[in-house]
Specification:
With 540 residues, the chain is mainly beta. It is built from five helices and 38 strands.
Length: 540
């Protein structure tokens, strides 16, 4: 009976057209004409609250159209909570999936046509993790397979035949154990016996100097290339043959051949020049004001979430440029620019509008100590370039890494116009400027949605707690469609009255799969521990 059910589910998965959070979909319903809206309005219609503040109680959501259920990772409880979404305006807790017998915490969840996949780290984070499969309808476990160390994110391929897993492989606290990063490619044609293949990076170990020269950061303590590369997030092409994986700390992406389960390319993402008009940022958390302007610094893009879509047959990658630094024991790359020795011929008072290392200028900005220096005769590191973490933007690129569009300082400018008195507050305080020195509004989560012949990007701003909605139908010239925020900066962040804080995971649900026949956006808010259902109203 189980095999019969599985056969039916796989058949349904292959024949159905699904648009997932990463923006990939089948085209089997090409005969169905979906009207294109002139404009859209994203509005909150439902909310589920865990009442757990800053505990990661609502991180990554996934939606199953068959059971009308949403599955939400609750890191605090080490479970996946199951919400009834038959009425999206009134989500109700039905049950939880308990993985206590499988290891540590759940890091990610994905759903495809009645099947739920969970990425589960080991209780020893440096050991191999697991992926477990469940039936969405009754939550019974189907199978469990072993994958690489610290499976951080997973997704189904558009055709439903594969699950692709980013295994981050982080070191332990003192860097004495550093597992390799990898990408697991799981064949789920028979869900009772999934087949796991591993795509690793060992082939690049003898190319460390070349990769560094290209701009790929390989800088871990005594780490090989395979150990240093840390897969973060995955998106799969519409034909289910290729995946692209963000390597956040490395400021790069990897291309994966899913047919052969192999890494075919590593692509550096380069650096954002914050000295150019339209690419400014607010660099100080001590000046007590909004001061978005150009600076003589470079930003490492370091994307977290990634999605893909097509325009005129060309695939484009969309990335949220969050930024991240490594700190393990005595290995800490993050430092303030005031604590470095800067080259006075480069960092002049004219260039900075005063002493560059003043706390009201660049002195407080967090930068990496691993790039931009030379060593003088006294053995002192002298920095002629400063590299900050993240680009405070979202970007669109071609698969070869070519930059097509970057939002520049639009997201910070947007946040400053919406929250003047609390600009760059963190997700756990209401203090003006508190994050200006450290990644700012911090774009992290991402979902792509197709409405008619338009594609929209929903970009979660972790610290600001807002969601920027862009029409990206023209990849070279995206336009802002809406800014959405349910946060109340006048309220104590530790109370429900503060609203929804720190969007982590976002999922787009097309109208054809929605319980109420309207497109939905489901968002897990990490700090407030809430899951919010937004309805997307279209104006034609």
């Amino acid at each position: 009976m189980q095999k019969q059910w599985l056969s039916l589910m796989v058949t349904a998965a292959i024949s159905s057209s699904v648009l997932v959070g990463c923006g990939s979909n089948d085209s089997d319903n090409s005969s169905v004409v979906v009207p294109t809206p002139k404009s859209i309005e994203v509005k909150k219609i439902g909310r589920f609250e865990t009442n757990l503040f800053d505990e990661g109680a609502s991180e990554i959501p996934a939606f199953d159209a068959i059971s009308k259920r949403t599955f939400v990772v609750n890191a605090k409880l080490k479970t996946v909570q199951v919400l009834d979404l038959a009425d999206p305006s009134n989500p109700k807790l039905l049950n939880s999936i308990d993985i206590a017998d499988l290891g540590g915490s759940v890091n990610s969840v994905a759903v495809y046509q009645g099947v739920v996949a969970l990425a589960i780290e080991s209780s020893n984070k440096q050991a191999n993790g697991k992926v477990a499969f469940y039936k969405a309808q009754d939550l019974s476990r189907i199978s469990v397979v072993e994958v690489g160390a610290l499976p951080d994110m997973l997704t189904f391929s558009p055709n439903g035949k594969l699950v692709v897993v980013a295994n981050e492989g982080e070191p332990n606290d003192d860097y004495s154990v550093d597992p390799v990063g990898s990408v697991s490619v799981i064949d789920v044609s028979d869900l009772t016996k999934p087949i796991v293949r591993s795509a690793g990076f060992a082939q690049f170990n003898n190319q460390i100097d070349s990769l560094r020269n290209q701009g790929i950061r390989i800088f871990g303590k005594n780490a090989s290339v395979a150990q240093d590369l840390e897969p973060e997030y995955v998106t799969v092409s519409s034909d289910s043959k290729t995946a692209w994986v963000t390597l956040q700390e490395n400021n790069a992406i990897a291309e994966v051949d899913l047919v052969n389960a192999s890494i075919t390319a590593l692509r550096p993402l380069g650096y954002k020049d914050h000295s150019k008009t339209g690419a400014g940022l607010d660099a100080s958390d001590k000046d007590g004001k909004i001061d978005i302007k150009t600076w003589p610094i470079l930003g490492m893009y370091q994307p977290d979430a990634i999605g893909n879509y097509q325009v005129a047959g060309q695939t484009y990658l969309v990335m949220s440029n969050e930024g991240d630094a490594r700190t393990y024991g005595d290995f800490a790359e993050e430092t303030r620019s005031k604590d470095l020795v800067l080259d006075p011929a480069v960092f002049t008072a004219t260039l900075c509008g005063g002493n560059c290392q003043d706390e009201n200028l660049l002195g407080r900005l967090n930068v990496t100590n691993t790039l931009g220096f030379s060593t003088n005769a006294e053995g002192q590191k002298v920095y002629s370039k400063l590299y900050s973490f993240g680009a405070r933007s979202f970007s669109i690129r071609k698969p070869d890494g070519t930059l097509v569009f970057d939002s520049g300082d639009q997201l910070e400018q947007l946040a400053s116009s919406k929250h003047e008195g609390t600009f760059n507050a963190s997700h756990d305080d209401n203090k003006l400027d508190s994050r200006s020195d450290n990644k700012g509004i911090e774009p992290e989560g991402l979902a792509l949605g197709q409405l008619g012949n338009k594609t929209f990007a929903f970009v979660g701003l972790e610290r600001d707690s807002g969601i920027a909605v862009y029409d990206i139908s023209n990849p070279t010239a995206p336009t802002l469609a809406q800014y959405v925020s349910t946060r109340d900066f006048t309220q104590d962040v530790k109370t429900s009255a503060a609203g929804d804080l720190a969007p982590e995971g976002l999922v787009f649900v097309p109208a054809a799969q929605s319980p109420n026949g309207k497109p939905l956006l489901i968002v897990g808010y990490e700090v407030s521990g809430s899951t919010v259902i937004y309805q997307i109203d279209q104006q034609f």
